[in-house]
Write a structure and sequence with these properties.
Blueprint: H1 4-7, H2 10-26, E1 38-42, H3 49-65, E2 69-73, H4 80-88, E3 95-100, H5 101-104, H6 106-109, H7 117-120, E4 121-136, H8 145-155, E5 159-163, H9 169-181, E6 185-189, H10 193-202, E7 207-211, H11 212-221, E8 225-229, E9 255-263, H12 268-282, H13 285-293, H14 303-324
Parallel strand pairs: 1-2, 1-3, 5-6, 5-7
Antiparallel strand pairs: 3-9, 4-7, 4-8, 4-9
């Protein structure tokens, strides 16, 4: 997702969240009607950014809602299996979806899948944003993106890059960078970022295009080298790493997001109640610090603007898939 509408409002958003948090702390949202757990379905394996954000919020939400919030990982089919599980559950406000870009792109990957994040679900609130980072192992000898391009040209071989899945936003931004910068790259998909990071570090693949949350610990330890980041302006956590726009891919301005959704059949009052509790929790300093430690930023996004941007990006990524004849199923 483009970061332009978000970056300029980040300070204001945090101030608004802080005000909301202090208000909510004085007036708790109260318990859900039945004494049973609320489930947040994360449609990816444990350890990814969606999972981390969901688990960080579960404790403050328990205190605000008077109910346990259980994180249920349902990985598979680029998030589709988890999304469908939420839609099959009773629309009673006890089952929610923590989704990301990849889930939103599913109708682009597989036309008419029977559900759509934009029409089958309602956005409750965005949880966090993070840049996507192109990384490699120090053992490759590569230190810049130009080094990667030069190696592809000198060897006459496509250089491999890993992502968290076929058709993921990481996959697609890697393909777009290859197209705009003239780098011969070959995609190697993984089922989640964890194994992808492991294989980049070991040299099984030359590079990775992965969320900051997955790679930052290894950048700090020196096990990985950052070649570029995908947001238009440099993230504070990657101040020394150039953006793809700086390196010539001027159209690329992509941040990976995590957001909470609920089926549209769930009444709006319940969705608003959850949104109030989540935003108040996100306003807590300890939650913000723990998200930042995992390379994620809190943000506030207008739901209508968010939906419009998603629709625009679907068109963009759909055209890229056609232009490069990508295998994304």
């Amino acid at each position: 997702m483009s970061t332009r509408p978000f970056a300029s409002r980040r300070r204001l958003a945090l101030a608004l969240l802080a005000a909301l948090g202090s208000t909510a702390a004085r007036a708790q949202t109260g318990a859900w009607p039945a004494a049973r757990s609320i489930t947040w379905v994360v449609p990816f394996p444990p350890g990814g950014s969606n999972d981390v954000a969901a688990r960080l919020l579960s404790e403050p939400l328990r205190e605000r809602l008077g109910q346990s919030v259980v994180v249920d990982n349902r990985p598979g089919a680029n998030g589709s299996l988890g999304a469908q599980a939420v839609l099959r559950a009773p629309a009673d406000g006890y089952t929610w979806l923590v989704a990301s870009d990849s889930v939103a792109l599913w109708p682009v990957i597989r036309p008419d899948p029977g559900w759509d994040l934009l029409t089958s679900f309602r956005l409750v609130t965005v949880l966090a944003l993070q840049p996507v980072v192109m990384v490699t192992s120090p053992a490759t000898g590569l230190r810049t993106l130009e080094d990667l391009r030069a190696r592809a040209r000198s060897t006459g071989k496509a250089q491999t890059f890993a992502s968290s899945g076929q058709g993921s936003v990481q996959h697609l931004v890697g393909e777009l960078a290859a197209q705009e910068l003239g780098i011969d790259l070959m995609h190697v998909p993984y089922k989640g970022g964890g194994q992808a990071v492991t294989d980049v570090i070991s040299g099984q693949v030359t590079a990775g295009v992965l969320g900051a949350a997955a790679v930052m610990p290894h950048l700090r330890s020196g096990k990985l080298v950052a070649l570029a980041q995908t947001t238009r302006t440099r993230s504070a956590m990657l101040a020394q790493t150039p953006t793809l726009a700086e390196l010539g891919a001027r159209s690329i301005d992509v941040a990976q997001w995590s957001a909470l959704f609920v089926p549209r059949e769930v009444d709006e009052a319940t969705a608003r109640r959850m949104a109030t509790a989540v935003r108040a929790s996100l306003a807590e300093r300890t939650v913000q610090e723990r998200l930042a430690a995992n390379s994620m930023d809190v943000t506030q996004v207008d739901p209508q603007q968010f939906a419009q941007q998603l629709a625009q990006e679907r068109v963009r990524w759909g055209q890229l898939i056609k232009d490069r004849r990508l295998e994304v199923n």
